[in-house]
């Protein structure tokens, strides 16, 4: 009965959270990232999925996966070498993950995933030229997973190991430096069984990709946990950029849509709740507050005028969705220096938004680089309806095989979707009283 109550509790909690999200998301997401918020943040399938314990449908029911239109594996034939017949990256991601899964299962079977032996209480950050048994253990691990081509058995943190550490950090979405903190060692000591579960879960997520994306010649994909945006065209990466996404209390939703409009020099229409709860008090204390913050009254509402200090930056990208989420530029560039970038109210903030606009409009004779610059630095909002809409997918992949290197990347489960899946697995794997 206790286990049944646990399952019931998880289900009720999921429903309550879902209800709260749908009731409040539109209000929350229109807040986005105000300039003051930015200043605050700146300062401060080889086996049945999970051993047949639960299915894609149970994950969908729990809100962990989104319902899919079609099974992408049915729409893409697979060759004998495990690659898809067409060239596009999304369609063969499942096969790539499956190959990595087999590799990790062999590592597990051969007991090669050795724990790195440290005393957490006395551990000091490792850096180049340091030495000791722990260095040798780290070297062995990086060799086993492929970050090093050979294992010299050396206990000295040398240049060879430095290169391996950089590759490891790149695959895990970490800051590219040579320091190895306790947090990094704890990450390396994550059981390989957990990594295998993560790979399997993300193989299932491949099945949930929208069918129109897997065969598209042009699309945008944002991977939320990796804080990265990719614009793919004709099977190649046309443009990439770092992003930051919604805070845990205001998640960037997994969704698919079509980018249909670019708005240069956008206004930020401030939600009434912020006007009532914050701005009115500030305007009362300082009669010049609106002018000093490039704001104005507009039909009984307050909006922030276009300009470099506008909270939406110099350009935004629109796509219809029920969550009022869109992508936009940001003046808070220093936030991109951080490893974990969950700061917004749900929208995706793009580090190089200008670059994305140029990439999308590259072959549009009506939009030269000079015209884009002018429109982004205008005093009035300039909307532009795209001649060809671009599919976009806000995805949640915590394991992903790189297009170019074929290496597996793991990213933090920032919204606990993987963790919730494991809890669901555990609750479904017990016999109820």
TrEMBL record:
- Indicate the residues that form the catalytic site: 328 (proton donor/acceptor), 347 (nucleophile)
**Locate the L,D-TPase catalytic domain: which residues?**
218-372
Cite the entry's keywords alphabetically: Cell shape, Cell wall biogenesis/degradation, Peptidoglycan synthesis, Transferase
PROSITE patterns reported for this sequence: LD_TPASE
Q: Is Transferase included in the keywords of this UniProt record?
A: yes
Pathway-wise, it operates in:
Cell wall biogenesis; peptidoglycan biosynthesis
- BP term (GO), one: cell wall organization
GO terms for molecular function, please? Answer: carboxypeptidase activity; transferase activity
One of its Pfam families is YkuD
Family, according to the entry, reads as follows: Belongs to the YkuD family.
Entries under PANTHER family matching the protein: BLR7131 PROTEIN (PTHR41533:SF2), L,D-TRANSPEPTIDASE HI_1667-RELATED (PTHR41533)
Please identify the protein, giving its name as recorded.
Answer: L,D-transpeptidase-like protein
